[in-house]
Amino acid sequence: MGSSVVIKDVTRDFQTPGGKVSVLKGITCTIDADTMCILRGKSGSGKTTLLNMIGALDDPTTGSILIDGKSSAGMTSRARENMRRRQLGFVFQSVSLIPSMNAIQNVMFSMRMAGCKEDMEKRAMEVLSLVGLSNRMTHMPQEMSGGEQQRVAIARALAHRPKLILADEPTAELDSGMAAQVTRLFKQISEEQHVTIIMTTHDVGLMGAGDQLIELKNGRIEGSDGA
Known about the structure:
Rossmann fold, six-stranded mixed β-sheet, globular
């Protein structure tokens, strides 16, 4: 079962040479387990800041974020790193595949980093097949299209069986048709693999792709629709 995420009264301030900048201004929402949530907003709306805090890469200035009832606030750096490696999966706009490794090797490398104990090659082949790359497993990144590389990145994030996948603008560098395909793939993975997925985007065309839509504007929630 995927993770649930409860965000309560979260603010995030940054100190700049010109003074304090409030990026998030009181965010409260709940993302249910086994759902796909679209976190939408223009550049500067605060969506990446919020995603980073859900992923224990940053802490709120005030408020709390609970994943399955637990907060990363107060954890040691090592505990945070272990949580990110073992319980969470990350997909970014830049896929950052290792160019000297083929698709299977890229996925297996991430599994080793997460401390996986199962048969890594078998699992890598399984998730690459799941994302539609059964015929591209031994291809190098430079031999793949942008959409195929992003699918490898999704397989890599899924391989260690996380309960929550955080995807930050994963379709930003893809054309509209490929972006829609990748987004549908995320929805399929959420439903079939019982993983909670939170995906940020600024694309209006993807607003209806998830079970839940949360819109941010100027650091506040402008709209939220459930399944």
